[in-house]
Amino acid sequence: MQYLSVDEALDFILTAFNPLEAQPVEVGHALGRILAEDVLSPLNIPPFTNSAMDGYAIRAVDTAGATPESPARLRLVAEVAAGQVCDQILGPGMAIRIMTGAALPQGADAVVRFEDTTEGFFDFSITSPATFPGSKDSLTGNRHKPQEVGVYIQASPGLNVRQEGEDVQAGRLVLQAGTRLNPGHLGLLAAMGITTLGCARRPHVGILATGSELLEPGQPLTPGKIYNSNNPMLAALVVGCGAEAVMLGNASDNWEVIRSRLVEGLRLGVDLILTSGGVAVGDYDLLKQVLQAEGQLDMWQVRMRQGKPLAFGHLGGIPLLGLPGNPLAPLVSFELFARPAILKMQGLTPILAPLEANLAAPIHNPSGQRNFLRGKMGLQGTNLWVWPGETLKSSQLASLIESDCLIVAHEERSSYVPGDRIGIIPLYGPGLNQTNTMSRATNPTVTRINNS
């Protein structure tokens, strides 16, 4: 099979995936889930007109011409707290003491803050609330409160009033299908009284590492062996996409072992199998052979670095994406191909158009392949800059400590100079470290990419 471009490979892979079925999810457990249906508000928010301040409910017309020197004097006829309803109808020359969130009494059209009244001349905290006609849940006090209040400002209708439905009106489309739910969304859903909603089912992604050299962390390290770093990295990436990781362990370079682990993944009902290793052209790269014999191998080899070896096919009708084994290569391949597939299964439209940033150091790219370099991005003033990493070797996992993005050097361009605009893809999903500065660009180094 001829090599595919990155774009061709992605398009080919995504055709194999469709959104999974929806399932009911309680709002309290919906953080990070993807909505599978539109949400319309069943009610107005606020559900009633209420006070935005602690103060006095009044008729604005009764404060015409009021000043601190000549306050409008209104008769105090009731008080109402949040959660209560005042039956008193506010007439001319009247005021009702009101707390934030309380329903605005009938007849009132404004609220003046305590600070804008003579409230300060009487300490309401030292006495129980007085009984006012029309107040529900009022208590009889031992002392009488003032019978009038002076208002120091000329109020306008609507002052410090939250109108019914001014935030959300009943029937309004609030959230669209495909929205990833964040804490603000959950708060709004709760405010609408919604307890359960339809969300895309979390994809179950099987993760299998291949290679006889692999040991699980915690086992004694013996000559010729290395610890398996790909499985925990890929599992974290899968979870970060909103999916569930199904660990299938390590498989030695043995046909039957690899096959049995893959069959176990099918038995567990996974929606996608991710493997690492075994997709190159070495004598012990058996994954492609197993896939060809037991399933269907649709494509392999992409014109890119890192991550040129890439297998994609189906086993038992389940898509399988075979990533390279060197630790950084599967990370790159995951971001380019696995993340979009997992997002599509949740009803999202994958968008791989990268951000753009100013390049801080030169890049030479004579390989004729699309290269994905590790980089560090940050703001200089209001401009986004990116610094290439100092190493390009796909085996040097420690370089990820200083990396938060992939720099996209396109195949049709052989060099970039400082200040050029260049595409970047944030690692681990969107993000930006705004604490980075241009200090690293003081002595820029040239990043060279060979053809190996």
Count of domain modules:
4
Work out the radius of gyration: 32 Å
* Strand-pairing-aware structural class: alpha/beta
What portion of residues belong to β-strands? 25-35%
What level of helicity do the residues show? 10-25%
Oligomerization category of the chains in this entry: single chain
If classified by CATH, what would the architecture of the largest domain be?
Answer: 3-Layer(aba) Sandwich
Shape: elongated
* Uncertain residue ranges: 126-143, 431-452
Mean pLDDT score: 85
Sequence of strands across the biggest β-sheet: 15-12-16-20-19-17
User: How far apart, in Å, are the first and last alpha carbons?
Assistant: 20 Å
Number of strands: 28
As for the CATH topology of the largest domain, it is Molybdenum Cofactor Biosythetic Enzyme, Chain A
The CATH superfamily of the largest domain turns out to be MoaB/Mog-like domain
Tally of individual helices: 6
Mind telling me the CATH class of the largest domain?
Alpha Beta
Query: Which sheet architecture does the biggest sheet show?
Result: 6 strands, mixed
